[in-house]
Amino acid sequence: MNHHPLRVSGQWFKGNLHAHTRHSDGELPLEQAVRWHQEHAYDFLAVTDHRVVTDTRNFTRPGFLTIPGIEVNTGRAELGMDYHLVALGIEKYPTPPNNWSVQETIDDLVARGAIVFLAHPYWSGLLFSQMQELRGIIGLEVFNTGCQTDLGKGLSAVHWDDLLARGRRLWGLATDDVHHYTYDVGGGWVVVKAEALTVPLIRRALQDGHFYSTTGPAIRDFYIQEGAAYVSCSPVAAINFIGCTQWGSQLRADRGGTLTEGSYRLTGKERYLRVECVDSQGRTAWSNPIYLLGNQ
Question: Which long-range contacts (CB under 8 A, 24 or more apart) does 98-104 make?
């Protein structure tokens, strides 16, 4: 059981893992896209243009890290859409053959040294039966700002829970998928706990789940001890402890008040437990799940 996902040593680093520039279909040139994130207190940025790895090495400097990445469209899902994969830590990537399945593409990306997560399942119309079969991904986008502002399909928490309930061990990532740098930017990001701001250490933290995702609130701590789960966070209106099916609980602040901590006594039936911290404006922070006995 990973009882202390955020209790590793290190510092907190804020990052956007899904962004586009004019190298594909983004509206800003690379330099301006990077500058936006620097000016808005981001510590790292992955530019993930479609079908091309954009060279961002010249924009890494002390206090700001760029991570090479790409968004790859591949395969065909049951409802007719292709899968979108975000791959990080890869320096170049040729367009995969049209007849490749999504799993073949994932396998190839991983073999080339990338870490891969599934983009915007709700927006893509993906069903759990197809996502359940995928191997080699670290997680999925629980929230995507661009898909939310596009047509209200940015939240994929139900997709995530469907997979977690079936025993898949996947992290949840919040991203922007920014194209326009107006209404679709600054809406979702990850906060990573790592020893230093380097690509290998940020990559390791992402792989190991040492981060939380958010559209605003902060999660300070989340752990299980002596049969109970505990969370501390920035002031919020509600804290949701979410396990398998009906197992979990919601804590609500008094009218006009806030919560900064909460606890939940485990029943032994949760299989996994994750936390959502929701402020008065509906902005949410998502912990990664703690996997409990029985979730194989």
Answer: 100/74, 100/75, 101/74, 101/75, 102/74, 102/75, 102/134, 103/75, 103/133, 103/134, 103/135, 103/136
Which numeric CATH code is attached to 11-214?
A: 3.20.20.140
Q: Which two tokens stand for residue 58?
A: 């010249």
Q: List the Cα angle 31/27/114 in 5-degree steps.
A: 65
Quickly count: other Cβ atoms within 10 Å of residue 83's Cβ.
23
Q: Which two tokens stand for residue 207?
A: 């792989």
Q: Please give the pLDDT value at position 241.
A: 98
Instruction: Enter the pTM of the model.
Output: 0.96
Query: By the 8 A CB rule, do 230 and 254 touch?
Result: no
Measured between alpha carbons, how far is 236 from 258 in angstroms, rounded to an integer? Answer: 5
Determine the 3-state secondary structure of 115 from DSSP.
strand
Could you say which of 1.20.140.10, 3.40.710.10, 1.10.10.10, 2.60.40.10 is the CATH number of the domain covering 219-291?
A: 2.60.40.10
Low-confidence ranges of the chain (pLDDT < 70): 1-3, 293-296
Gap between the Cα atoms of 84 and 64, Å rounded: 27
CA distance 273 to 244: 8
